[in-house]
Design a protein that fits this description.
The chain contains three helices and no strands. It has helices spanning about 1-15, 20-30, 35-75.
């Protein structure tokens, strides 16, 4: 059951992330029509999102390591 859900979602993700040349042209037109303020906002969001993803990775790794350590210590006599 779970394998079926994973394979279906993988197909959905692959199908919905395809980028066509028309999409890129539309993005370029949209960006060219924007003022400086919104463009600076987009530029500043990229590093903030990158830092957030790094912090989230550290938190997830720390939580999984801490959980594994707790399980290891509980099993010792």
């Amino acid at each position: 059951m779970s394998q079926n859900v994973v394979s279906r979602s993988a197909g959905l993700i692959q199908g919905s992330t395809a980028v066509s040349p028309d999409m890129l042209n539309g993005l370029q037109t949209t960006l060219e029509g924007m003022d400086l303020g919104p463009l600076l906002g987009l530029w500043l969001q990229s590093p903030v999102i990158g830092l957030t993803m790094q912090a989230l990775g550290i938190i997830i790794y720390g939580a999984s390591t801490f959980g594994a350590l707790q399980c290891f210590l509980k099993e010792k006599p």
